[in-house]
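Recap slide: 3-keto-disaccharide hydrolase domain-containing protein, sequence and predicted structure.
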Amino acid sequence: MKKLILMLAMFAVAKTQAQQKYQVHNLSVVNPKQWIIPQNDTLDYELGAFDGQKALIIKRKIQNYKSASLAYKPGLNFKDGIIEMDVACTIPKGGFVGLAFHIRDAHHYETVYFRPGSSGTINAIQYMPEKKAEFNWWDYEATKYQAKAIIPQNKWFHIKVVVQGSKMEVYVDNAAKPAMVYTALDASLKSGAVGYWHGNCPQGAYKNLVVKSFN
């Protein structure tokens, strides 16, 4: 009897997942007239190419460990779903590149970013909620906010982030298992836009951003 109940429960979960619908937002085309892309004396961008592939190239002219900048299309109210994109830190020694979600503005969002220079260590991936004018990554250095992964340097890699409720799973380069599972997403940042995140990195390349929102 217990086995039958378990099988029925598993069937119900599988059926629910199969029936779950997505609303797809293809943000792979970056139109500067529709996007918010910071540009100032220390930061610049271009619609160029890296490794023979078209991309949004973000350049930081002056390095600053407190640096964090977003490029995103406003209007999306993403809560739960799947985010996929390709990213590369285009310098040999690495820098900080990633994505942001539940974006309210330039200083209120959640981010998952990657450190190619720390590939293979617990510092390779970091999650943090940003809610200050100054990017305060040092407040989220505890092990629970970080994860070990192999992050390519000076090369494209694929990211998939699954967000549902307070849980987030991060997959790197189409791996079957997540490199990071975090179960305490910030409750004050429940929804918002999705975009590219550029940290303290001389140059990063970003492309193929697709968001699937759970209906």
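Residues 8-19 have pLDDT under 50 and may be disordered.
The longest strand covers residues 203-214.
(End of recap.)
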